[in-house]
Description:
The structure holds two protein chains of two kinds. Chain A is α/β, with parallel strands linked by helices. Chain A folds into two domains: 2-135 and 299-314, 3-Layer(aba) Sandwich (Rossmann fold); 137-298, 3-Layer(aba) Sandwich (Rossmann fold). Helices cover 38% and strands 14% of the residues of chain A. Chain A has eleven helices and nine strands. In chain A, strands 7-6-5-8-9 form a five-stranded parallel sheet, sandwiched between helices. A four-stranded parallel sheet of chain A has the order 2-1-3-4, sandwiched between helices. In chain A, helix 2 crosses helix 11 (295-314). The two termini of chain A are 15 Å apart. By secondary structure, chain B is α/β, with parallel strands linked by helices. Chain B has a single domain (2-198), classed as 3-Layer(aba) Sandwich (Rossmann fold). In chain B, the strands form two sheets. Chain B has a five-stranded parallel sheet. Chain B is globular. In chain B, 47% of the residues are buried. Mean pLDDT of chain B is 85; it is low at 1-11 and 194-211.
Amino acid sequence: MSQARHLLSVSDLGAEGIDEVLRLADTFAEVGRRPIPRVPALRGKTVVLGFFEDSTRTRMSFEAAAKRLSADVMSFSSSGSSLSKGESLRDTVCNLEAMGVDAFVVRHSCAGAPSQVAGWLSHASVVNAGDGAHEHPTQALLDCYTLSRERARRLGVHPPRPAVLAGLRIAIVGDIRHSRVARSCVAAFSTLGAEVTLVAPPTLLPASLAGWPVEVSHDLDAQLAKCDVVYVLRIQAERMKEQFLPSLREYTATYGLTVQRARLLGPSALVMHPGPVCRGVELAAEVADSPASVITTQVGNGVAVRMAVLYLLLGSGGSLGSGEAG
Amino acid sequence: MAERERAALGARTGPLQVRAVVMDRDDVRRAVWRIAHEIVERNHGAQGLVLVGLQTGGAWVAAELGRVIEAVAGVQVPVGTLDVAYYRDDIRLRPVVPAAATEIPVEVDGAVVVLCDDVLFTGRTVRAALNALCDHGRPAAVQLAVMVDRGHRELPIRPDYVGKNLPTRRDEMVDVSDEGVVLGEVPPEVPATGAAPAPSGPASAVEGRGR
Lengths: 326, 211
């Protein structure tokens, strides 16, 4: 299992691998509730956070996860490093590995960068923390975790298994084209048996949807009435190099989850968002703060899920996704 | 303990060859009754006690002791479970994942915690449990109750309450449940688990088995 050493794409895991991560995340969520929320499981391991692109939530979440596992954490950002002196990415990571690093958590604006890094390393693990518009596997895993546990809790189903996602209708709304979260979530949700519908203006859909296990709709109102989960995405203006939208106001009018639109949702429907939220654009502030919203739960669960990923890669014999750990 | 058992059983697929039935169901029941009385006697009652079973084999021991102590002392004693996977000292030697939930229903600060397990062997599981417990709070005291003490300690750990002292060879297996205690071995033609360090025996021997 060469793939088992790294987490580059959520598709590497399969349903069993996702289930294993979610099961372990439960145990780490319990650790998080203790007076001393820390276990010695990764004592002596070193995790490098290599964020070559801006991030607050994901970097802090990985840092908290590594520290709660008692790993040593080193941070790295491209500004203020030798990258600005002209050192290549390859030399940078190989030098770091030579210092005795066990895992690299890599975020990069170029799709495929974590996979490149993985190819250069001789023994360290790589976790993809978001690469370009390609993948963001730990976000998808924490969304699966949040979804299965919240659904189970609200419906009184016990024990919570990923099976509660089977047949679930999930509408992913917004800037699919530039979203790595959408790509990972579509793969993870459909692996667990959910029915995913993408809702977006044609300009914000990928050029080709061939092979995507999804339906497509341009009518948000019709989808809201029949979906169990509405997953709202941010308009990634910083990645837009051409005019994709007439204006943000027009986008909000047709695809924003406004207070009026949210009334179309069923009583048990959940509202999710990977953050950062642009209140008043893709999501009204009142909806983001309503009981249907699990946005802060997603963030809270992120630490437990990332602990599970780091532990599976570094602590339990490197058997992520191979099924061996089950 | 649960992980150790899993690792060993995974490699040794053969059935347990029973050499001797050491305790039958009634013996186990009487041992639970005696230990419950000893716990109440030693602690001058059952107030402030918390029973914590080590997952997975110790969970039933804690539950049974709790039931009997309630009958004997008329006090309902909180019963919890503890999985020590993340505290084990052999994490980097082989796959270790938690087998079951950790759930301690009350604050352990100031309580007298009785750790319960089925088999006491090297003492490494108990060492891990002590560290795990201290992350939950600061107990007034910690005591240790085991159904079987089979010897071969590798750490300075001594039980407070013992169902039966059972001298064993290192490569023997002890199977403990509320149905009885069986001493046996698994056919030697299957080698011990590959992930275990070669020279030392404990990782290849089962400490016990729950229900």
